[in-house]
Amino acid sequence: MVLESVNLPSTSKDNSSTDPDRKKTDPPASGSDQPDKGDVENVFECNICLGSPNDPVISLCGHLFCWPCLHEWLEMKPVGTQTCPVCKAAIDREKVIPLFGRNSKGEDPRNKAVPPRPHAHRTEHTGPGPYHNPLFEGANFLPFGTLGGPGGGFHMTIGIGASPFHALGAMLGFTNFAGQVPPGLPSQIFLGIAMMMIFWLIFF
Amino acid sequence: MAAPFPVSCARRIQKELTALHAEPVPGVTLKSGPDTLADKSTDINMIIKGAEGTIYNGEEFNLRFRMNERYPFESPEVVFQPPNIPLHPHIYSNGHICLSILGNDWSPALTISAVCLSIVSMLSSCKEKKRPPDDQFYIRTASMNPKATRWMYHDDNV
Ligand SMILES: [Zn+2]
Ligand SMILES: [Zn+2]
C-alpha cells in the first residue's frame, strides 16, 4: 500500500490533540482494512502492540498490556530497573495482575512459556531518571545525561552541550568498524576516560 | 535489514500509520510510508513545517523514520534528511537529533506521532538558530546511524 501525502491544516478547527477521548468520525484516509471502532476499542488496547491484548495483564499503575509484549520489554531491562512503558513507574513480573474474562481459562499467563524471542541487541544502562512523556507534555529533554550502571543512577550534568560518546570512543579506538561502542565496556570507566578527554579538549 | 518483519511489528506500524491519517500531528505530514507491509523497507518519511510564530516559520524539513524488526521494543532511527536540516542547538548538521526519547528514554508505548510531537515542540521552543557546539567534531566521527552514538542529553531547555 502506498500512502499518499495528506495535507492537514495545522490551524483548522481545534484539532483532536486536545481531546483524546473524542469520538473519531473520520474514516482513515488510507485504504485500511481496519475500521475505526471508536473509543471503547482504544481503551482496551495493549500499550505496546496497540492491538487487543492477548493474555492481558495490568500493572499496579493501571496500564494494560499483553503479557507477551510486557514480558519482552521486561526482559530487555535488568531486574530492579524495569519500568512501565507508559508512565515509568517501577514494575516487575510479580506485581502485574492477569485479567480473566468470562471465557478465559483462568490460567496465569506468567506461568505459560512465552515463546523464545531474540534478545535485545543493545544494552542500555539507564538510571531511574525523570521521564517526560511527550504525549502529555510539550517538553522532551532530560536535564541530565544518564549514564552509569543499573540502579546506580549516575547523573551527570554537562555544560558544553551534547557530547556524543561515540565520538570519544572513536578517538580512543574503542569502536569497531561499524562505529559501535562495545556493549561490554564498563560505563564508569568509559565515563572517566570521557571526562579526561573533555578536560584535554578544554585545556590543550 | 536482516530479518523480515514479524507480523506483530508490521501490524503495529500499520496501526500507527492509520492513526496518523486519522489524527495527524499539527504541522506534520506523512510523505511516504513502506510500500507494502511485507516489505523489508521500513522507511517512513515525514514533512515537518516550521510553525507560524517560530523561528522556522515557512521552512520545511524532511524527517526519516527507520524501523528495524525489533520495533517497538527498540527505538526507531530518526534523522533529518538533507538538503534542509534545521539549525538547532540539538540537531547536528548530518541530521542526527539529540533527543532522549530516541535513546535511553525510549519506551515501546511511544509512537511515531509522539516522536513527531516532541520534535515539533523542540523546534517551536527554540529561540536561536545555531548548531550544537561540537557539531564539526561529531559529524566527522559519527556513524550513519544515530543509534550508534552514546548520547549525553543537553542540559538546557531550548
Ligand atoms: Zn500487546
Ligand atoms: Zn504505568
TrEMBL record, chain A:
InterPro entries (alphabetical): RNF5/RNF185-like, Znf_C3HC4_RING-type, Znf_RING, Znf_RING/FYVE/PHD, Znf_RING_CS
Manganese as UniProt keyword: no
Pathway assigned in UniProt: Protein modification; protein ubiquitination
Segments of skewed composition (Polar residues): 7-18
Transmembrane segments: 185-203
Compartments reported by the entry: Endomembrane system
Catalyzed chemical reaction(s): S-ubiquitinyl-[E2 ubiquitin-conjugating enzyme]-L-cysteine + [acceptor protein]-L-lysine = [E2 ubiquitin-conjugating enzyme]-L-cysteine + N(6)-ubiquitinyl-[acceptor protein]-L-lysine
EC number: 2.3.2.27
SUPFAM superfamilies: RING/U-box (SSF57850)
Key word Nucleotide-binding present: no
GO CC annotation: endoplasmic reticulum
Residue ranges of the region described as Disordered: 1-38, 101-129
Gene Ontology molecular function terms on file: ubiquitin protein ligase activity; zinc ion binding
RING-type domain location: 46-88
Entry keyword set: Membrane, Metal-binding, Transferase, Transmembrane, Transmembrane helix, Ubl conjugation pathway, Zinc, Zinc-finger
GO biological process: protein ubiquitination; ubiquitin-dependent protein catabolic process
Protein's name in the database: RING-type E3 ubiquitin transferase
Organism: Hypsibius exemplaris (Freshwater tardigrade)
UniProtKB/TrEMBL annotation, chain B:
Entry GO MF terms: ATP binding; ubiquitin conjugating enzyme activity
Keyword ATP-binding: yes
Reactions it catalyzes: S-ubiquitinyl-[E1 ubiquitin-activating enzyme]-L-cysteine + [acceptor protein]-N-terminal-amino acid = [E1 ubiquitin-activating enzyme]-L-cysteine + N-terminal-ubiquitinyl-[acceptor protein]; S-ubiquitinyl-[E1 ubiquitin-activating enzyme]-L-cysteine + [E2 ubiquitin-conjugating enzyme]-L-cysteine = [E1 ubiquitin-activating enzyme]-L-cysteine + S-ubiquitinyl-[E2 ubiquitin-conjugating enzyme]-L-cysteine
EC annotation from Swiss-Prot or TrEMBL: 2.3.2.23, 2.3.2.25
Domain spans labelled UBC core: 8-158
SMART domains, A to Z: UBCc
Domain of life of the organism encoding this protein: Eukaryota
PANTHER family cross-referenced by the UniProt entry: UBIQUITIN-CONJUGATING ENZYME E2
Name of the protein this chain belongs to: N-terminal E2 ubiquitin-conjugating enzyme
Organism of provenance: Hypsibius exemplaris (Freshwater tardigrade)
